[in-house]
Amino acid sequence: MSRWSIRKIQVHTLLSLLSVASILAYASVLIPPQFFWLIPLMSYGIPVLIAINFILVIPLLFTKRKRVLYPLACLILGLPFILDTYRFSHQESTLAYDFSVLSYNVKLFREYKVYNKFSKELIETAVKDTSDFKCFQEFSYNNRWSALDVPQKMKEEGYYAYIYTPEMRDADHNPGMALFSKHKIIDKGMVWENPYSINGVMYIDVKMDQDTIRLYNVHLASMELQLGQYKQSDHYLTKIKDLFQRLKNGAINRSNQIEQLILHTQNCPYPYLIAGDFNDTPYSYNYHTLSRYYSNVFEKVGQGFGFSFNSTLFFLRIDHHFTNPEIEPVSFEVDRSIKTSDHFPTRGLYRINH
């Protein structure tokens, strides 16, 4: 067999393997993470596989036209994921809006990457934001020191509050979650909670003129990745095994938590909006489960990539807003100008469909 024939077989084999890997990764978003430990890892590879297929299309188009069908078909199949990743600029909506929502993981109001010191700048940013509703994850306060008494500061700005603090607290702060509203809260509660974790899902019902709406604040389980340890080469196999286990456990925990959220919204008598830190990317089973029940606001009215994580893995979009059909998104943005937390704040404008 000639060298040329061997090379053709090798190219064909590599393209076939890439196609199979792409299809398996795409299909992974339909399979619950409880089914197989590799499922969450496969979904994380979707953007990489799309990028490789895209890079291969151009040279194959001019050199091996028949084989360009492999990466081209993978790109066509991956189009929904491409649209989930990037939204092209759209014309600014002229619709009036009824209310605005801020969602922000404020990292316990600590200095960025200096967790033993509180950030007055971050507190000021959260307090002075003028949104009608504010959803905070990793919220913290200390009412013994006025500079850290965030609930009192919000009250002075005209907000009603619902704050959840689990049993895990210390002398310096009360970690948890918070919802603040310019409109009077007529009901509130927890969808699920863990007394030993700052994660949870909370909600408030508010009366707005003739309408009553419900707002959910979500903070799903994180994977608690210690990224710094992977920069060191010692015990690498153990670290990789630990990474896989954390990815699997996180995906399974979030899947169970999402099931509870979906069940709760199905019994909601009002239009509702869901916002928060979901710790899941658009390439996951959990995200696609949510998208089957709710409309993702970024995908409706956002633009660009919408990356919301302000850390080493800057390319992650894990902070989301979702609505039911009775609430129409007008605009959505990730405010990347505010860099005082390891998440960027997300903001949306909404109108109520009557």
From TrEMBL:
GO MF: endonuclease activity
InterPro entries according to UniProt: Endo/exonu/phosph_ase_sf, Endo/exonuclease/phosphatase
DNA-binding is among the record's keywords: no
Protein name from the UniProt record: Endonuclease/exonuclease/phosphatase family protein
The species this protein was found in: Reichenbachiella agarivorans
Top-rank lineage group of the source organism: Bacteria
Positions of transmembrane segments: 37-61, 68-86
Pfam family name, one: Exo_endo_phos
Residue ranges constituting the Endonuclease/exonuclease/phosphatase domain according to the UniProt record: 102-343
Record keywords: Endonuclease, Hydrolase, Membrane, Nuclease, Transmembrane, Transmembrane helix
Gene3D superfamilies linked: Endonuclease/exonuclease/phosphatase
